[in-house]
Amino acid sequence: MSLDRTLAALAEPHRRRTVELLADGPRRAGELAEALGLSPPAMSRHLRALREARLVEESHPPFDARVRVYALRPQPMAELKAWAAAAETLWSDQLLALKVHVEAEGE
Description:
Strand content: 5-15%
Domain HTH arsR-type: 1-92
Oligomer: single chain
Organism: Caulobacter endophyticus
CATH class: Mainly Alpha
Radius of gyration: 20 Å
Number of domains: 1
CATH topology: Arc Repressor Mutant, subunit A
GO molecular function: DNA-binding transcription factor activity
CATH architecture: Orthogonal Bundle
Pfam family, one: HTH_5
CATH superfamily: Winged helix-like DNA-binding domain superfamily/Winged helix DNA-binding domain
Protein name: Transcriptional regulator
């Protein structure tokens, strides 16, 4: 399931921070490593995990194929947002039912 892949990838703090940085727009791998204080090999491992989870996509500018630019893919985050909204609705409904029950018991 894609939601499971998304949540597993985002369980790691550096990956969450990478996603936060990419929310502002595409960035080069080196920029991401520098912003996170990671070595290039460590950043590469995190970006690979995010690519495998399909959270990010990689492109190369036409002027230099060695440069890797990463950008967020919108679909996995939209699925995560929909799942979180449904969970929030469920818990809100449950808490409202509990409130009604407690108030009815107090009367």
